[in-house]
Design goal:
- The complex is a heterodimer.
- A 6-stranded mixed beta sheet of chain A has the order 3-4-14-9-10-13, with helices on both faces.
- By secondary structure, chain A is α/β, with parallel strands linked by helices.
- The relative contact order of chain A is 0.16.
- The two termini of chain B are about 25 Å apart.
- Chain B has an 8-stranded parallel barrel with strand order 1-2-3-4-5-6-7-8, surrounded by 7 helices.
- Chains A and B meet through β2, α1, α8 and β11 of A and α3 and α5 of B.
């Protein structure tokens, strides 16, 4: 086992030989540009002037009073251009790809947020763009498909397997191995083969870099806990990263429990998965006793993934972060709660983190604080929530 | 190259200087009984080595034809233990060299030591794992070699300066990937395979077989003339897809024509 790109026993580069040299070139380019002042200035300019960073850290006063415990702060990644944290990573990778001489971006997407962000960056930087999305997700998130097409991207509906996020990753990998010369695979989460988990984490760590300074400014001390939803885990990794050395800050990742972790209709990897090798990495995966990847389920297309990024698996192993499952029902309740209480409609993914805060806030003293990463906005989910509640929306 | 005990792979490349023909099928497609019959028929028709695919839910290196074979096999209930049972039945009638072809996770999850000890017991000579590249193969190769199973290395059109390192440590044979992308039938193979093979030859005499995209006797002959053999997967799986349980005679005819073509190369 090579120690390259390892987080404890997790990570690595379990990928076809055809892609190995491309990953090595990507790593070399990243190692060079991450220390290049010109690259960083260019990226910072895009983040500030195009994506709208820094994002707000909003004190949710009504929610705080209602829950009766720790002060609740919301890290408003939903206010970024394109409506989620995905743009942080995409702008970084797209700029890197451009420096590498690539002219085309491909990406997988679940809920469509990463696909929209990638299509946006491609439009801005004048690159060709092709998105792979499970057919089931193209139906659940039809609006996002049209958004991507508006932005000039081609959207491929993936009809293999469970027709969701993992199948979209499979097809994006297949396409990349077919065409590496001019194409960068803009992976959307802290997963896949090295160097992706590190690159994506670094580009997303802006979330905790800002949040840490913002909470110190507002409260004069660190938060008691940081809570974020976890599918592959990019917003959570970004929200946790700069707090990892602050041992007193609890880090809580919220997995998609689906219809419950005691049912097969779940995507909670830490709660129900086991160690495996898939999508280029060693980590925890939902799988059967023969190592066949399980057909997972969640109401949230963005968390509907049978694995978790290798650095999260490591944080779990060493006990630095805790991972808890949140059911569909809890997430939908939290979706409605935040909408009514604070006038903020969160993505159904982010609502998983809100649900955990609703459960635990009262256990913390009133002079402590909790940061919830609101990773995206919920406009895309309104129709699905209506369906969940049995409301028939006519267009 | 290490020398594994009683490993039959070298036999596949040592039939009085004739080139090798290697055939692939997915175990359990459409069912276990058919797989046993097909493997024996393929051996009879002239395959020098047979690659048996252990189905995986997410075969990321495969094109549509083999992806669908994986789905057919798994949805008919095939498991890793079921594949071992297929090999056990084949071994009662044939000592043809056999390799498994699968993905890292089914082997890892079974337990490397337990998996390769079964391979040794049943006489499986090698394993091809497309998501276990040079940098990572050590964790699998240790237990595999301890049970006299070769981990087959792959070289691809993008391997460039990696070719020599891969070739130096290769066991059994070297799987030269003819084209970019995934498995599947191709009309044309454009990679400069002569140069890849020449780089390999500078550092090792381990046999090289070319696979990915080969379906016609003409292609097989051309690939065999550049190397030590040709590997065919998707074209065989397509016959199984088309004829289902009745595929045996069609497999025989196809493989015989391919083997004859490969064998005509000196």
């Amino acid at each position: 086992m090579s120690d390259k790109g390892r987080f404890g026993i997790h990570g690595g580069q379990y990928i076809s030989e055809t892609l190995m040299n491309e990953l090595i070139k990507l790593e070399e380019a990243y190692e060079h540009y991450k220390n290049d002042p010109e690259f960083n200035a260019e990226l910072q300019k895009l983040l500030n002037e195009y994506a709208g960073r820094p994002s707000l850290l909003y004190y949710a006063e009504k929610m705080t009073k209602d829950l009766g415990g720790a002060k609740i702060y919301l890290k408003r990644e939903d206010l970024n251009h394109t409506g989620s944290h995905k743009i942080n990573n995409v702008l970084g990778q797209a700029l890197l790809a451009k420096k590498m001489g690539k002219t085309r971006l491909i990406a997988e997407t679940g809920a469509g947020q990463h696909g929209v962000a990638t299509a946006t960056a491609a439009a801005l930087l004048g690159m060709e763009c092709e998105i792979f999305m499970g057919k089931e997700d193209t139906e659940r998130q039809a609006l996002n498909v049209y958004r991507m097409e508006l932005l000039g991207a081609k959207v491929n509906a993936v009809t293999t397997g469970t027709m969701t996020l993992k199948d979209a990753v499979n097809d994006a990998m297949r396409e990349w191995s077919n065409r590496v010369e001019d194409t960068h695979y803009c992976l959307g989460s802290v997963m896949g083969p090295h160097p992706f988990p590190t690159i994506v984490r670094d580009f997303q760590s802006v979330i905790s870099k800002e949040a840490r300074a913002q909470i110190l400014e507002a409260e004069g001390k660190l938060p008691a806990a940081v809570i974020a939803c976890v599918g592959g885990g990019s917003n959570a990794m970004g929200a946790f990263y700069n707090f990892i050395p602050d041992k007193e800050v609890e880090l809580i990742g919220c997995e998609a429990g689906g219809r419950g972790v005691d049912t097969p209709e779940t995507a909670a990897t830490i709660a129900t998965g086991s160690l495996g090798i898939f999508h280029g990495m060693k980590s925890y995966f939902c799988q059967d006793k023969y190592g066949q990847i399980a057909p997972v389920y969640s109401i949230s297309a963005g968390l509907d993934y049978p694995g978790i990024g290798p650095e999260h698996a490591y944080l779990h192993d060493i006990g630095r972060a805790k991972y808890v499952p949140i059911t569909d029902e809890e997430a939908v309740n939290a979706f409605e709660y935040l909408s009514r209480t604070e006038g903020i409609i969160p993505a159904i993914e982010s609502a998983h983190a809100v649900a955990q805060a609703m459960k635990i806030a009262k256990d913390y003293p009133k002079d402590s604080s909790i940061i919830i990463c609101v990773s995206g906005r919920g406009d895309k989910d309104v129709a699905a929530i209506a369906r969940y509640r049995g409301v028939d929306l006519h267009d | 190259m290490k020398h594994l005990l009683n490993n039959k792979i070298s036999k596949a490349f040592d039939t009085s200087n004739k080139k090798a023909f290697i055939g692939f099928l997915t175990a359990g497609d459409p069912d276990a009984d058919s797989s046993v019959k097909f493997i024996l028929e393929m051996a009879k028709a002239g395959c020098d080595l047979i690659e048996i695919g252990i189905p995986f839910s997410d075969p990321t290196a495969e094109g549509v034809v083999i992806q669908e074979a994986n789905i057919r096999s798994l949805s008919n209930g095939m498991t890793t233990d079921g594949v071992f049972d297929i090999v056990r039945r084949v071994r009662q009638e044939s000592d043809i060299p056999l390799c498994f072809m699968t993905y890292a996770n089914p082997v890892f999850h079974y337990g490397y030591d337990e998996f390769f000890s079964k391979c040794e017991e049943l006489g499986v000579d090698g394993i091809i794992v497309p998501d276990m590249p040079f940098e990572e193969k050590e964790e699998m190769e240790g237990p595999a070699n301890a049970h006299n199973v070769a981990v087959i290395s792959m070289v691809s059109p993008t391997s460039e300066d990696r070719i020599k390192n891969i070739a130096r440590q290769a066991d059994g044979f070297i799987y030269v990937v003819s084209s970019m992308g995934v498995t599947g039938v191709r009309n044309e193979i454009k990679t400069d395979l002569d140069s890849i093979i020449a780089h390999i030859r500078e550092v090792t005499d381990t046999p090289c077989a070319i696979g990915f995209g080969i379906s016609t006797p003409e292609q097989a002959k051309e690939m065999a003339s550049k190397s030590d053999g040709a590997i065919v997967g998707s074209a065989i799986v397509r016959i199984i897809e088309k004829y289902g349980k009745e595929a045996a005679p069609y497999l025989y005819d196809y493989i015989k024509s391919m083997k004859d073509s490969v064998a005509s190369v000196n």
